[in-house]
TrEMBL record:
<dbReference type="InterPro" id="IPR016181">
    <property type="entry name" value="Acyl_CoA_acyltransferase"/>
</dbReference>
<dbReference type="Pfam" id="PF00583">
    <property type="entry name" value="Acetyltransf_1"/>
</dbReference>
<dbReference type="InterPro" id="IPR000182">
    <property type="entry name" value="GNAT_dom"/>
</dbReference>
<feature type="domain" description="N-acetyltransferase">
    <location>
        <begin position="1"/>
        <end position="140"/>
    </location>
</feature>
<keyword id="KW-0808">Transferase</keyword>
<dbReference type="InterPro" id="IPR053144">
    <property type="entry name" value="Acetyltransferase_Butenolide"/>
</dbReference>
<dbReference type="GO" id="GO:0016747">
    <property type="term" value="F:acyltransferase activity, transferring groups other than amino-acyl groups"/>
</dbReference>
<protein>
    <submittedName>
        <fullName>GNAT family N-acetyltransferase</fullName>
    </submittedName>
</protein>
Length: 148
């Protein structure tokens, strides 16, 4: 699936992904995956439904869904390169992804965000109902740990 708008290409084709650029952003610029190893990023992409935004053969945005394509999808690793922010690319990416055939008919779509609540609310996301039912294991600063 691919659309072109205002010179930007939005695509779900993994062969277009620039894994080195994705790794650079996630490991150096994101707050959620600082120092993430390249092999971890590569493996996460291999096992996810991924989307990229491209301009002049450069990857300028990325997002991935962890999904079984039947009941559940978790949106993560969403970013737009700083020089391309403010152009509405996040909204266009969300609109492109939310109607993807592999994400239809699921009973639960989830994500976590520090500061983009307003964006995601425009696409139907809201605070979790019954958050006390949600549980998880969170390993803080996992990528900062050195192997023993």
């Amino acid at each position: 699936m691919e659309i072109i708008e205002n010179g930007f290409i939005f695509s779900d084709q993994k062969e277009l992904l620039q894994v080195e650029s994705i790794h650079q952003y996630l490991s150096e610029e994101s707050y959620w995956a600082k120092n993430i190893p390249f092999d971890t990023v590569k493996r996460s992409i291999e096992n996810s439904l991924c989307f990229g935004i491209y301009k002049d053969n450069k990857q300028v945005g990325f997002a991935r869904w962890i999904t079984d394509k039947a009941t559940f999808a978790w949106l993560c690793d969403v970013y737009i390169e700083e020089e391309f922010r403010g152009l509405g690319l996040s909204k266009k990416l969300m609109a492109f992804m939310i109607f993807h055939p592999d994400l239809q008919g699921l009973r639960r779509y989830q994500l976590a965000t520090l500061d983009a609540h307003g964006l995601y609310e425009q696409f139907g996301f809201s605070a979790l109902q019954n958050p006390e039912r949600q549980m998880g294991i969170v390993v803080q600063n996992i990528y900062d740990q050195t192997p023993s």
